[in-house]
Amino acid sequence: MPSRFLLRPSTLLGLLILLFSGAAAARDWFVAPNGSDSWNASGSINAPFASISRAFWSGYAGPGDTVYVRGGTYWLNAPQWVSVGGAAAAPLTLRPYPNETVILDGAGLPATGPAVLTVLASHVIVDGFTVRNSTGIGIQIWPDSTPAENVVIRNNTVHGCQKSGIFIGHKLDQTTTGVRNIQITGNTLYHNVQENRARTWTSNWHPALGILYSQDVSVHGNRVYENYGEGISVMQSRRIGVSRNVVHDNYSVNLYIDGGAETRHEANLVYSTGQTDYFRDFYHTPGKVPLPASGIQIANESWPEWTTPIMAANNVIINNIFIGNRAALSYGNYQNGGGLKSLRFAFNTLYAQVETALQVDPDTHSDNEFSNNISVQIDGVPHTWLSGDVSGFRFHHNFWSGGAPQPVARSASDQYGDPSFNRPGGYTAADYILLPGSPAVAAGQTLTGVSQDYFAKSRQTPPSPGASESLELAYNTLIDHYYMAILGRAPDAGGRAHWGNEALRMQIAGVDVQEAFRVMAGWFFRSPEYLAKQTGDEQYAADLYRTFFNRQPDSGGLSFWVGQLAQGMPRSLVLYAFLFSPEFTGYMQNLLGNTGSRSEVYAVVDFYRGFLNRLPDSAGLDYWLGRFRAAQCQGAAAINAEVETISRQFIAGAEYVQRNRNNSDYVADLYYAFLRRGAEPQGFQYWLDQLNSGALSRDQERLALLQSPEFQGRVQQIIQQGCLL
Q1: How far is the C-alpha of 673 from the C-alpha of 655, rounded, in Å?
Q2: Which fold does the domain 598-725 belong to in CATH?
Q3: 140 touches 113 (CB < 8 A)
Q4: What class is the 471-575 domain?
Q5: Mind listing the pLDDT tens digit for each residue in 5-48?
Q6: Chain centroid, CA 280 distance in Å
Q7: How many CB atoms lie within 10 A of CB 645?
Q8: What b/e readout covers 127-136, taking b as 16+ CB neighbours within 10 angstroms?
Q9: What residues does 505 pair with on adjacent strands?
Q10: Greatest CA span in the chain, whole angstroms?
Q11: Contact 664, 656 (CB under 8 A)
Q12: Helices and strands (H, E) in the chain, number of each type
């Protein structure tokens, strides 16, 4: 018997366990433009399939496997099917090969309009494709006879399709939903629903992202814009979460609830920029000026197969920002009617809606709450249009600017005036942050179930109306803590104002405001006032514990760090370890909320903090970020080349040279700038020895950190964020 078949007893035992447990090792399968779909094709990396569908023939891809599609454009003449699924603990993944771009072009599909890619199975992940020009739908979940559950569709770009970009659903019968527990996240959909590009249809166009006959679906972090149908549409479905999406300039409706129940629309940015190509003549009146899409619309349409339709009820719309839409919220009583039932519309920011802010047709309404919203209207455009029986509405603690609403919408708890937005009229969430001193701060009422704002920051008690809390109080809490824990005194008014303004400047610029407080902490510990205290190593370590963990040090932790300092680890490295610790990160997140930035923003800020020990100035941030984003659109090689150039320029610049950094400091700076963390003791000592011995020059060590697997992981994150130019 050939030796390759001889198994050690332990190996044989392992195989027997696998056999009898039903488990199987996960496999990788490959699809490539030069592959083959012959009956005896292997699907290996050297003998790939030619189509995605082929990988899912019986006996091929299955639970735990990954189907890699090699880079290139696939000019399809047949739709692709994911007909086999995975298992709960072993999903089946379909994705492009690492660092390669896959384009699935459906222009050659039959004119009957099939989807480019259809998922028929459960426990499937579809990740990272570009799908374009479908004669029908781009990506769909549409099971035939068995439900499709636990499917993830993420990080795909879909454009140019005749119908929907992404569509999920299928009623197996009149009472059973066949699609459940679905995640649709991080996708970009634009220029879809091309069949309605002439804008001549009066009804029955597709949504860009549609959910039908489904339940327990998360639609999170997608960009849906410039489509000739609704942006995101929930139809005859229950428990759908639509959160943190950017939805703008779609046709007729940006967000639609059509017979949806128990949906939660939260922290979405929804707007119109005035692109008339996507406007609709809502009233079909000759000479009527077309209008932009409604922000969010609720209705109960009627279709022949809906014998027992779901009626819109128990929906929650909170922490959203609506800018320049036809109306922020509209209800239409057409077809089935039914009225608004148990709607909570709260903590939303409404700015400059074109026709009216809240528009509700007469119907039988019941148990609806409108509270803690900020509505700003311009040039006399009304805040509300409510007609018929309005006894089913409760209005309270709203903030109105630009006139008063109808009497039915007023409350003694309301306020009027300028809410003092940061930059009103823009199209980013940061534009609608409440500035320090805003009359809206703390003018709302606490509501059960609303504990965070648009930025995932904890609501104050009492809260501020609108989508975002003022960050002034949170900023001051941390600034005051720094002064007391590090300097041992209360802040002076000028110092508090300076650091508060720096934090706000970063927030407005789209930088993670937590980075401002990391830089701030470093400045405090290096300030002349702190250095004048001449603290020893033990006191320094204890100060770090009190500052970042808000507690006295434990004896073991204190001994460890004092030992590291005694062995020559620079204080800056120990500081960095505390700055990026899970304990301090959690503390800042609880205080400030989810303030995260895009990956390329972190990279630029890290260079400033790591090499220059400061936050970027506004002009510098714009310049370097522009260079980074240009490279980001060209892939890993371009990003690495730009990182090499930018880091070399930072180190060679006068500002860094004047800091007069020794070898220990230099190693600490590299870790901070490239890896955004402090060095582990062994790693620090290794790189320091390389410099001190002359084995590596400073420039060689910089290049080594740039090429490290850890930094290259950051490069991949930058690529995955997507090109913005």
Answers
A1: 15
A2: serine acetyltransferase, domain 1 (1.10.3130)
A3: no
A4: mainly alpha
A5: 233 333 333 433 333 444 457 999 999 999 999 988 999 999 99
A6: 29
A7: 12
A8: bbbbbbbbbb
A9: none
A10: 93
A11: no
A12: 17, 37
